[in-house]
């Protein structure tokens, strides 16, 4: 991204997260959030989220950062958001979705290798983080953890209006142009 574009986004207090959220991208995102928090004097930060997938640890690094910021974060889902990236959405104080965006509630997948002991520890940590994801989603949606888990097992997909009805987001951002609604 060009320096001018980055400066303009900082002025607008806007952070764009797209693609796959891995450890490197999470570090960049956390850095941007902390910078805006330091510059912001309580003004909200808006996250544009188009994360089709995320590593659990990376998603929770961003969530933990958002939880300690002094300014509120607002999230706008654009495109597709799914898996562990839903934790980032759930950490935002205000949540919206664009009319053509979608949310995929799917079980987070992780792969590990190593010794049997290392894999057992990894599996235990994976279960803990998946539980934390489902707990957070249950908190923001008002649904039970069991319902969230069952819907994730089925791989449910939500359009904008369905995402509002389920409780992932508060409302649909914007409105269609005249003659299209």
Fill in the keyword field for this structure.
181 residues; three-stranded mixed sheet; alpha/beta; five-stranded parallel sheet
Q: What letter string, H or E per element, gives the SSE order?
A: HEHEHEEHEEHHEHE
> End-to-end span in angstroms?
35 Å
User: Order of strands across the widest beta sheet?
Assistant: 1-2-3-5-8
β-strand number: 8
Quick description:
This protein is an alpha/beta fold and 181 residues long.
Structural summary, described in words:
The chain contains seven helices and eight strands; from the N terminus they run H-E-H-E-H-E-E-H-E-E-H-H-E-H-E. The protein is an alpha/beta fold. The strands form two sheets. Strands 1-2-3-5-8 form a five-stranded parallel sheet. Strands 4-6-7 form a three-stranded mixed sheet.
How are the elements arranged and paired?
Elements: H1 3-12, E1 14-21, H2 23-40, E2 45-54, H3 56-68, E3 73-77, E4 80-82, H4 86-91, E5 94-97, E6 102-105, H5 116-141, H6 145-154, E7 156-158, H7 160-166, E8 171-172
Parallel strand pairs: 1-2, 2-3, 3-5, 4-6, 5-8
Antiparallel strand pairs: 6-7
Helix pairs in contact: 2-3, 5-6
């Amino acid at each position: 991204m060009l320096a001018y574009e980055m400066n303009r986004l900082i002025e607008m207090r806007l952070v764009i997260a797209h693609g796959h959220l891995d450890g490197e991208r999470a570090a960049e995102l956390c850095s941007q959030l902390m910078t805006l928090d330091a510059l912001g004097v309580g003004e909200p930060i808006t996250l544009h989220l188009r994360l089709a997938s995320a590593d659990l640890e990376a998603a929770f690094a961003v969530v933990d950062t958002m939880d300690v910021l002094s300014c509120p974060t607002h999230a706008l889902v654009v495109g597709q958001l799914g898996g562990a990236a839903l934790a980032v959405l759930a950490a935002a104080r205000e949540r919206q979705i664009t009319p053509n965006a979608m949310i995929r509630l799917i079980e987070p997948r992780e792969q590990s290798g190593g010794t049997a002991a290392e894999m057992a520890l990894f599996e235990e940590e994976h279960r803990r983080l998946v539980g934390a994801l489902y707990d957070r989603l249950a908190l923001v949606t008002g649904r039970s953890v069991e319902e969230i888990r069952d819907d994730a097992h089925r791989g449910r997909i939500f359009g904008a209006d369905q995402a509002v009805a389920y409780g992932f987001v508060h409302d649909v951002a914007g409105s269609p142009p005249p003659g299209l609604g």
